[in-house]
Amino acid sequence: MFEDAELGHTLSKEKFDRRIAAVRNALLDAQYALLESRGASVVVLMTGVEGAGRSETANALMSWLDPRHVEVNGLADPSDEEQERPRFWRFWRALPSRGKIGFFFGSWYNYPVLRSSLGRKRQWGKLDRRISEINRFEQMLANEHTLVLKFWFHLSRKALRKRQRELKKHKATRWRVTARDRRFLKHYDDFREVAEHLLRETSQAHAPWLIVEGSDRRYREMFVAGELLEALKARLAAPETKAPLPATPTPSSSVDRNRTVLAALDLTKKLTKDEYEDELERAQGALAMLSRHKRFKDHSVILVFEGNDAAGKGGAIRRVAGAFDSRMVRVIPIAAPTDEEKLHPYLWRFWRHLPRRNNIVIFDRSWYGRVLVERVERFCAAGDWQRAYAEIDDFEEEMTGHGIVVAKFWLATSKEEQLKRFKERERVSFKHYKITPDDWRNRKKWDAYAQAVCDMVARTSTKEAPWTLVEANDKYYARIKVLKTVRKRIEEALE
Amino acid sequence: MFEDAELGHTLSKEKFDRRIAAVRNALLDAQYALLESRGASVVVLMTGVEGAGRSETANALMSWLDPRHVEVNGLADPSDEEQERPRFWRFWRALPSRGKIGFFFGSWYNYPVLRSSLGRKRQWGKLDRRISEINRFEQMLANEHTLVLKFWFHLSRKALRKRQRELKKHKATRWRVTARDRRFLKHYDDFREVAEHLLRETSQAHAPWLIVEGSDRRYREMFVAGELLEALKARLAAPETKAPLPATPTPSSSVDRNRTVLAALDLTKKLTKDEYEDELERAQGALAMLSRHKRFKDHSVILVFEGNDAAGKGGAIRRVAGAFDSRMVRVIPIAAPTDEEKLHPYLWRFWRHLPRRNNIVIFDRSWYGRVLVERVERFCAAGDWQRAYAEIDDFEEEMTGHGIVVAKFWLATSKEEQLKRFKERERVSFKHYKITPDDWRNRKKWDAYAQAVCDMVARTSTKEAPWTLVEANDKYYARIKVLKTVRKRIEEALE
Predict the structure, then answer these.
(1) Nearest in space to B46 (alpha carbons), one of B94, B107, B88, B90
(2) Which of A212, B35, B298, B382 is 20 to 30 A from B56 in CA distance terms?
(3) Residue A314 pLDDT greater than 70, yes or no
(4) Is the separation of the CB atoms in A145 and A343 below 8 Å?
């Protein structure tokens, strides 16, 4: 794999000088065309062997490009705010918006490579799990208008040793060889073995690895600039070449309309007002106590509320939020995306709201909009909502893998009950804001929505992040079921 | 000051129950009206004596309001990302957008009150400086469509002691009395003295203190709900009642056009290409070394670039950015605000980009747009740009007070030189994107801009955050002057 990058590629000063002006101009032109079209964001990973010239190359590129539209992300040690979120949070946070270019030093490759090679017992199984996460993440990026370029800066062991010796010779450069560099040299062979495996397994058409021989400054700078330029030009010429969808079958329509998870709900379930008040107090009290539990400080909670229009999401959310100290809870109502959000991958606007530890975030509607309203109303292409199931699964796995308690609720009413509530909302003045023409329009597509809900539940209900279908014709019953479920989920996590 | 709040106000269950339904409905109505109008954001401070029922009251309000449009900010200990920014960063970060309500527990009052009263030697001088900062901050909020309500929850020493005793009596509530609470009781009289002074000095028409007697749950909840409701209703009824401008004189127009700081520049200054290349290498090298200095890790750097159109800001920025490791630098081009930014106070979109320590942020255009283009083109009311001088001053004082190195550059060309560059831009294809009809339009207002620049420099050039006027008819000269100035500023900070 690294053979070509150990041949001793160099570029003479003469050749470099002859070419560079044209490359720089073309790079600038491509950058402005990208900015104008907003067709894609560009993620450039700068990774590989320490000391193979990554930062020098990035510095050179930065001086050739217009730095106002480039973001360079060091991403060394995570801050405490980053540590309290799932691992990918800091990368999501740093994703450039469309039109911009982001260079990443620390990236999703650092941890698995270094962990697996330096000092520790190698764990191939764990590494392979990381690899498949990474592949899915990059696939998602590619599908979400992101051009991913991955540069691996290579130096042979010999070249690396030579470089360190030379730096150590001179007083002015001695400081540049750190203890970490020396340790790295010692473990070079392990590192190389892991890297080969990793690169082979993560090289994909939509996110290729480009191996750069790092020993000659002019060669590596020209190489990276040239590859970036070609990739930009290709993208600008054919902006719509999306990575083909992985072969997932389209969600199967249930053949028998009367045997769905929704149809199986017993919507006559109800509670009397007395039962409700009694249970409400008990359930809220229990949640309050749980949130003060010592171990709760290590967790956060994410609750997702979806449901038919007028199913009572707002009321249920208030009862859950009211159980906790208000300083711990934030309710995020999901409406139309802002212009910043539109310039990022679909899930970005949800990632940004993930809570710190000891906090609860309640989503009033959520990322499931993709496979519900966007599917039914055809706001996105079929391919987009079909791949969303897997992307959502990865998203939630990131959460649960980080110890976040996840619970998802679908509040289901009957079509008749909905009609009754719509009419009441139109009648009662202070509920008027709650009913819009959209609601009536959605109602006409009741069956299509029901189908989408069944597919969603079938494909995204997991042990760690299960869906709870809530019989919501009776608001009292629904609220208590929600509260009890949240309680159970948190109790399980604290055990 | 607290006499009224020690009278033992209570509210019977009967009265509370009779009123609360109406208050809740009215609150909800007002909240939705606020959300619809987007006329103001609402900042509610919940502060005062520990144990006087702040969080219970917030919890109650949260269950009466629609929690989807309320954000409760605990703001206890700052995170490391917060500690690396100026003190007010975390409050700016938490400001609700227009249409929303934000409750603040930790607020800009915590630090001065507690520091000045608990345990430490009291420093009245310092406290008074904080007080005037706070008053200016709240004045700015009021002017920027923010309704500020400050609740001070009060308990007399006797009532507080009684409350702690009662809590300690029962096993179920004993945990609620912390060491901090006991310490607080011990220092109660000091605290009260400081608080009286603070409240007196920070009570303003546009940000009044409302003192709540905290001993009776129903009384305090009804009090806070009632005051919030009245304030919302008043605001909705008269959305445009802005706080009157403090009596700052309008910037004086310079009587003699030929004796301004701009006219005094010697625009014939220039460097030869050889001199430039020589100086460039030296200056960039010096900056690179400074950025690796041990003490640099404790600082961050903010550079502001303003100037005539086509004065060469971009080129100068590239030379500065290129001096540093690209991972440390971010260039922020200031264009039209995003929709999220428009829903926040004017300076919010600049605050959000303040760097962490050991980082450099370069603003390509900046908050000075308020007193330049917005003033000249009348994009904002005269009062808005007039008060901006003081607001900007406070903003930059926050930076420099935190150890941030601030340097501001005005790149000045002659009118003739600008014309030459405009024409060249139109001629050269790859510079074409740089020239727009706006540029020609702005040029027609040359004198008005010159006036605005002189006023700006006169009013916002401070010892800690000085303006450097750069003779920019010769690009080489300009870039070197910028680089040398940045170097000098950083050197001074590291000394």
Answers:
(1) B107
(2) B35
(3) yes
(4) no
- Strand ranges inside B172-281, DSSP E: 209-213
Lowest mean pLDDT among A326-330, A395-399, B111-115: B111-115
pLDDT by residue (tens digit) across A455-471?
999 999 999 999 999 99
Instruction: List the single residue in A28, A72, A433 with the smallest CB-CB distance to B327.
Output: A72
Chain A to chain B, count of Cβ pairs less than 8 Å apart? 112
Q: How far is A258 from chain B (nearest CA, A)?
A: 35
Nearest Cα of chain A lies from the Cα of B83 at a distance, in angstroms, of: 11
Is pLDDT of A257 > 80? Answer: no
Length of chain A: 495
* CA atoms of B227 and B225, how far apart (whole Å): 6
Task: Determine whether the interchain pair B326/A58 forms a contact, defined as Cβ–Cβ distance below 8 Å.
Answer: yes
Band the pLDDT of A178: cuts 50, 70, 90.
confident
CA distance B403 to chain A (A): 20
Question: Per residue in B239-263, is it b (16+ CB within 10 Å) or e — as a string?
Answer: eeeebeeeeeeebeebeeeeebbbe
Of B448, B488, B441, B438, the C-alpha closest to B466 is B488
Question: What is the structure's pLDDT at A390?
Answer: 93
Distance, CA of B308 to CA of B417 (rounded, Å): 11
List strands edge to edge, sheet with B70-73.
A467-471, A405-412, A301-307, A360-364, A329-333, B70-73, B101-104, B41-48, B146-154, B209-213
Task: Return the DSSP state at B328.
Answer: G
Q: Is the pLDDT of residue B293 over 60?
A: yes
pLDDT band for position A180 (cuts 50, 70, 90)? confident
